[in-house]
Amino acid sequence: MFAKALRSATVPPLYNPPFARAVRQARWVSTLQDNPHIYVFPDERSLNNHLLTLLSTSPPNADLAIGSTSQLPPTPDSLLENPKFLSILHSVLAKHAHEDPYVISQAQAMASTSGSSLGSGGAFFPQQGQRRRGSGYGGGGGAGGDGAGGASAQGGAGGGGRGGFIHVSDTRSPPDYGRIAWPEDIFGSLEVDAEGNFVDGAGNYQNSGSYRVITRDGILGLSPFLRERVVDRLKEEQSKMHR
After folding, report:
1. Which terminal residue of the chain has fewer beta carbons within 10 Å of its beta carbon, N or C?
2. CA distances from residue 231 to 1, 94, 242 in whole angstroms, order as listed
3. Nearest in space to 97 (alpha carbons), one of 166, 183, 37, 175
4. How far apart are CA 181 and CA 188, in angstroms?
């Protein structure tokens, strides 16, 4: 399970709010305890709702928020994803994912093994026996079921020097060695050639269409590099709105 609390990003707690024992209220801003990069603000558009955002700016901009939740800590049933944020997220990934050190290491690993047996969880594998997960793991009212469909079964990493695809995945639930991430944890994929280089320079990022902001394993987790790129883009969008 993920965050069962909020934590102060600035000062010690002043009091314990009534909605949860594990919530700590800060004087200025609060964050999810298990994800200090996600800030929590009251949602002025709806009583008792909260906005979750990667920006610490107060008041928050709902258009740039990750989403709105009716309870804290957020759950797959309580969080309403913000489509505009997801659009920005995938735009950033399309531009910068191939520059992420972790993604680069996956591409190099695929080339070193001829794309036939990656253990990092980042490559497309030929269809194989899949782990199963109980229903109800989709975020924001998303899909439930097992992990055998969606992006995890779309193709195979090329063997014999043919190259293939690697996944760009959420960090909240790293897959076991020799496995790929759950479909709801996969942002998208990048195409890699036989030498481990990204095709057309940036890998032709493909949105998986199966990603969920929140699952039972946690909420949005980005590598430090990609999180910085996303925050920079959100700040740019925020500046445009204030012009």
Report:
1. C
2. 26, 15, 17
3. 166
4. 11
* Angle, vertex CA 36, rays to CA 34 and CA 39, nearest 5: 115
pLDDT band at 144 (very low <50, low <70, confident <90, very high): very low
Q: For 188-214, what is each residue's pLDDT tens digit?
A: 999 999 999 999 999 999 999 999 999
Question: How is the beta sheet containing 67-69 ordered, strand by strand?
Answer: 6-8, 30-32, 35-42, 50-53, 67-69, 79-81
Helix (H) or strand (E) holding 52: strand 50-53
How far is the C-alpha of 42 from the C-alpha of 55, rounded, in Å? Answer: 14
Cis peptide before 59 (omega within 30 of 0): yes
Question: What residue has token string 């709702």?
Answer: 49
CB 70 within 8 A of CB 52: no
Question: What is the Rg, in whole angstroms, of the alpha carbon atoms belonging to the chain?
Answer: 19
